[in-house]
Inverse folding.
């Protein structure tokens, strides 16, 4: 990787860590993975090597790289002047399509990133309820802002009620006392929800969660848990916020909230709704959304919010997601890929398994029992990050791009796109078969 090494050396003089995002370093390399171009399900390294991509833009690329319909939409946008800071018929078309796809979202406000969207949702929840406290699920990620970026012990610092004992900022630089307005509890633990609701009754504005926790692998909930949480929120006058920044569009129409049959009060979406273009949204019940300016006092605005290029890309994404057979194809790939990967764990006697949902999946190296996946405190006891590191190194050698963001005590999510072909999957299984043989 001579050219990559040269780029890294020069980039390190100009950009922190040699890249434009801290989370872009591939830990098995110690550098960013510099690519020249990408197409379909493949990325092409600056040194000329081709990789089947299973990181897929950290969950943003459900439709693959350089999709012809999205490409055509971008060309049309350029012809129009690719403007921002104006609304257009395209923003209205997007809103209509999104409402059709996710009918629980009555009104929307567009932003540029998932971080902006969750920040706006929390502000609206506090303004609507006139309360301050936010309940967060331990290990869930909702953006890098002081409103909610408190990770606690990630499954290792829970009291007997399932509440995290100490809430700490995820990064230095937070103002002192910011953590006082956030409480962390264990995901999938209904008793923890009941306890925290009772303990802080009258002070809670909202509870926020990923319906599927992708930040710690691929941790689903159960429909019964979601149903009970919804009922408790309604009873206590607490808003329920679904963070669908990753899960959005990855399930049949209705998204994850449709899959679970739950109507949250507010939701956030980003990533796949525009296949990686800078578009996100906060949406929900009209009476809450009307609190945003100009109809209400809560300010949520941005120079590039709803920029035409992102909106036109998103319109094609929504249209494709609503076409017959789209989710049949997603589920077919998921079933084949993950079943074959799980079979390889058994074939080679390597402790572990794969869990998948919504075109995302995670390798749970270290234990075989998938029931432990539902409880983060159990996952961190058994998961083996060093084995995952060895696996990702071997994947790079086999020209499979599987991301490694560092030795976290829980799995990291990867994914696939509708551009992944049967040949991609067959070749991938063959390569992982060889990798597992070397890992034994």
């Amino acid at each position: 990787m001579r050219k990559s090494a040269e780029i890294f050396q020069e980039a390190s003089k100009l950009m922190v860590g040699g890249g434009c995002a801290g989370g872009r370093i591939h830990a098995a390399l110690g550098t960013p993975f510099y690519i020249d171009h990408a197409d379909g399900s493949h990325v092409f390294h600056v040194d000329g090597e081709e990789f089947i991509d299973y990181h897929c833009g950290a969950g943003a690329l459900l439709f693959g790289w350089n999709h012809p319909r999205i490409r055509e939409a971008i060309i049309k946008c350029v012809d129009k002047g690719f403007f921002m800071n104006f609304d257009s018929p395209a923003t209205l078309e997007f809103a209509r399509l999104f409402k059709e796809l996710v009918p629980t979202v009555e009104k929307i406000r567009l932003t540029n990133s998932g971080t902006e969207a969750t920040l706006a949702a929390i502000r609206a929840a506090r303004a609507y309820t006139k309360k301050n406290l936010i309940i967060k699920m331990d290990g869930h990620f909702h953006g890098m802002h002081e409103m909610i970026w408190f990770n606690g012990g990630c499954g290792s610092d829970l009291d007997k009620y399932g509440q995290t004992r100490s809430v700490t900022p995820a990064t230095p630089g937070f103002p002192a006392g910011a953590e006082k307005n956030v409480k962390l509890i264990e995901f999938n633990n209904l008793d923890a929800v009941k306890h925290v609701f009772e303990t802080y009754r009258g002070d809670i504005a909202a509870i926020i969660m990923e319906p599927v926790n992708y930040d710690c692998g691929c941790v689903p909930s159960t429909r019964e848990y979601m149903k009970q949480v919804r009922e408790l929120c309604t009873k206590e006058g607490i808003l329920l916020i679904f963070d669908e920044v990753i899960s959005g569009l990855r399930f049949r129409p209705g998204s994850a909230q449709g899959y679970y049959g739950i109507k949250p009060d507010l939701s956030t979406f980003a990533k796949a709704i525009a296949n990686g273009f800078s578009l996100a949204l906060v949406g929900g019940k009209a009476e809450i959304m009307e609190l945003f300016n100009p109809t209400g006092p809560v300010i949520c605005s941005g120079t590039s919010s709803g920029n035409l290029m992102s909106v036109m890309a998103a319109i094609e994404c929504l249209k494709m997601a609503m076409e017959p057979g789209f989710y049949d194809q997603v589920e077919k790939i998921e079933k084949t890929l993950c079943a074959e990967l799980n079979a390889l764990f058994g074939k080679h006697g390597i402790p572990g398994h794969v869990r998948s949902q919504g075109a995302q999946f995670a390798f749970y190296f270290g234990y075989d029992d998938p029931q432990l996946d539902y409880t983060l405190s159990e996952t961190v006891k058994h998961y083996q990050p060093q084995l995952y590191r060895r696996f990702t190194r071997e994947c790079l050698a086999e020209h499979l791009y599987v991301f490694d963001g560092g030795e976290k005590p829980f799995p990291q999510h990867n994914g696939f796109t509708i551009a992944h072909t049967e040949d991609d999957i067959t070749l991938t299984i063959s390569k992982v078969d060889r990798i597992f043989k070397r890992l034994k």
